[in-house]
C-alpha cells in the first residue's frame, strides 16, 4: 500500500493550519462535568461556524464530504496547533456514535442526529458495559420490553464515560426476552433526559469524575430509536466497536506522536541528567509511534476491512501510551512530578492505566487477534 497526499491535500493542509493557528482556544480544557461539556461544545461550534466540522462525514448531513486522508490531515494539524485533545467529551459523537449512525442508522435518525453532532448541539455517551458484562459483553442483561411502539428499559450500565453531561446514549440492551448471548440484543438511541434514568458519577484514580453508573427504571424509548433491526444489535455494536478501535485511533495516535516528540525535546534540555537507558527507551518509543502511525493508516485503508482489524491498532496504541507516559515519569523524576500538581504529564500518566481496559481490555484484544485474525483455536475451554 502506498499512502500519499496529493497537491490538493497539501493545499487543504495549509488552509487548515492557518485557521487552526488563529482559532485554537488558549485555555486548558476542564477535566469533567458541565465545564468540560461547555468547553468541548464551544470548540465544535467554532469549527462548525467556520466550516470545519465533519471533514469526512457525508455532505447530505452537514459534513464536508471529503476523503479520509483530509480527516487525517485535520487531526495532524489540530495536534500541531495545540487544539483540545480528541479524547474530550465529543469523542463518542465524532468517533463512534456518528459513524455508526452513518453506517447503520435510518434516514430519519441520520437527518436528526448527525447535523446536531456537527453543530455542537449534542453530546453522546456509550452504554454497553454492565457490572457483570464488560469483556463478556454478550452476557448483558439490561432489558427492553416491547410495549406498543415503545421499549420499556430496566437495568444498569457502568463505566459510562460522560453520562452525566451527555444528551444521548448508544444503549445496548436485550430486547428479545429469553434470548441468549449475541442474539436478541438491540442498539438503541437513548435520550439521557428521559424519566427513569439515574446517573451516579464515579471518581477515577486521577481524581477525575468522568464516568458513571447509569440506572434505568421503566424508561420508555420509542421503537423508532432502534438503530438497525430490532434484535440485531450485536451486529450494530460490532460496527461501533470497529470504529472505536480503528478510526478513533487516528486522532489519538497523532496526539501520542506529539507527546513523544515533546519528551524528546524535554530529554534534550535535561541531557546531563538523562542516562543512556532512558534515551534508548525514548528512541524506541519514537520508532514505535512511527510504526503505530503506519499501522493505523494501513488498517484504515485496508480492503476488505473487518471489524476485528482495529484490535491490533487498539492494543499497540494502548500499550505504547502506557510506555510513553511511564518514560515521562522517569524523565521528570518523582520530585518534579510532585512539585508541579498542574503538570499535564501526571494526569496523562494516571489516565493511561485505563488504556488497556477501555474499549476492550488488552487480553480481549489479544483473544480477538488470535482467534479472529490469526485463526488460532479458542483457548481456555470456553
Ligand atoms: C476509562 C474507561 C472508560 C470506559 N468507558 C466506557 C463507556 O463509555 N461505555 C462503556 O460501555 N464501557 C466503558 N468502559 C468499560 C470497559 O469497556 C470495560 O471496563 C472493559 O470492557 C472490561 O470489562 P470489565 O471492567 O467488566 O472487566 P472484566 O470483563 O471483568 O475483566 C476483568 C479481567 O479479566 C480479564 N478477562 C476477562 N475475560 C477474559 C477472557 N475471555 N480472556 C482473557 N482475559 C479475560 C480482563 O482482560 C480483565 O483483566 C470504560 C472503561 C474505562 C477503563
Describe the model:
By secondary structure, the chain is of the alpha+beta class. It has 3 domains: 7-88, Butyryl-Coa Dehydrogenase, subunit A, domain 1 (Orthogonal Bundle), CATH 1.10.540; 125-232, Butyryl-CoA Dehydrogenase, subunit A, domain 2 (Beta Barrel); 246-373, Butyryl-CoA Dehydrogenase, subunit A, domain 3 (Up-down Bundle). It is built from 11 helices and 8 strands. The chain has helices at residues 7-23, 33-49, 68-80, 91-104, 107-118, 233-245, 248-269, 276-300, 310-339, 345-352, 362-373; strands at residues 124-127, 143-147, 150-161, 168-174, 185-191, 197-202, 211-222, 226-227. The strands form 2 sheets. It has a 4-stranded mixed sheet. Strands 2-3-7-6 form a 4-stranded antiparallel sheet, with no helix packed on it. It starts with 6 loop residues before the first helix and ends in a 9-residue tail after the last helix. The model has no long low-confidence stretch (mean pLDDT 92). It binds flavin-adenine dinucleotide. Flavin-adenine dinucleotide (FAD) binds at residues 125-129, 134-135, 159-161, 211, 354, 357-358, 360-361, 363-364, 367.
Amino acid at each position: 500500500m502506498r499512502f500519499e497526499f496529493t497537491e490538493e491535500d497539501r493545499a487543504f493542509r495549509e488552509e487548515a493550519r492557518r485557521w487552526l493557528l488563529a482559532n485554537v482556544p488558549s485555555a486548558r480544557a476542564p477535566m469533567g462535568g458541565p465545564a468540560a461539556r461547555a468547553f468541548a461544545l464551544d470548540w465544535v461550534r467554532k469549527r462548525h461556524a467556520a466550516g470545519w466540522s465533519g471533514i469526512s462525514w457525508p455532505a447530505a448531513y452537514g459534513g464536508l464530504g471529503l476523503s479520509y486522508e483530509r480527516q487525517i490531515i485535520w487531526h495532524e494539524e489540530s495536534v500541531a496547533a495545540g487544539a483540545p485533545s480528541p479524547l474530550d467529551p465529543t469523542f463518542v459523537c465524532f468517533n463512534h456514535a456518528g459513524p455508526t449512525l452513518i453506517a447503520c442508522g435510518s434516514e430519519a435518525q441520520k437527518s436528526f442526529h448527525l447535523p446536531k453532532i456537527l453543530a455542537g448541539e449534542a453530546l453522546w455517551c456509550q452504554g454497553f458495559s454492565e457490572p457483570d458484562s464488560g469483556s463478556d459483553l454478550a452476557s448483558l442483561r439490561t432489558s427492553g420490553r416491547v410495549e406498543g411502539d415503545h421499549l420499556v428499559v430496566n437495568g444498569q450500565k457502568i463505566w459510562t464515560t460522560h453520562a452525566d453531561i451527555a444528551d444521548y446514549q448508544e444503549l445496548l440492551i436485550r430486547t428479545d426476552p429469553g434470548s441468549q448471548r449475541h442474539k436478541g440484543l438491540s442498539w438503541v438511541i437513548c435520550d439521557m433526559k428521559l424519566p427513569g434514568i439515574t446517573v451516579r458519577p464515579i471518581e477515577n484514580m486521577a481524581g477525575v469524575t468522568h464516568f458513571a453508573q447509569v440506572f434505568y427504571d421503566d424508561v420508555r424509548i420509542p421503537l423508532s430509536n432502534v438503530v438497525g433491526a430490532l434484535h440485531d444489535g450485536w451486529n450494530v455494536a460490532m460496527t461501533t466497536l470497529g470504529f472505536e478501535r480503528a478510526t478513533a485511533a487516528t486522532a489519538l495516535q497523532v496526539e501520542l506522536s506529539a507527546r513523544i516528540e515533546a519528551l524528546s525535546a524535554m530529554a534534550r534540555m535535561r541531557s546531563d541528567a538523562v542516562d543512556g537507558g532512558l534515551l534508548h527507551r525514548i528512541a524506541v518509543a519514537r520508532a514505535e509511534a512511527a510504526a503505530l502511525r503506519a499501522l493505523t493508516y494501513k488498517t484504515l485503508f485496508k480492503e476488505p476491512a473487518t471489524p476485528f482489524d482495529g484490535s491490533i491498532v487498539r492494543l499497540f496504541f494502548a500499550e505504547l501510551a502506557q510506555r510513553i507516559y511511564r518514560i515521562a515519569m522517569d524523565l521528570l523524576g518523582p520530585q518534579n512530578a510532585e512539585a508541579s500538581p498542574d503538570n499535564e504529564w501526571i494526569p496523562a500518566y494516571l489516565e493511561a492505566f485505563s488504556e488497556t481496559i477501555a474499549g476492550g481490555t488488552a487480553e480481549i484484544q489479544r483473544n480477538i487477534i488470535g482467534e479472529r485474525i490469526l485463526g488460532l483455536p479458542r483457548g481456555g475451554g470456553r
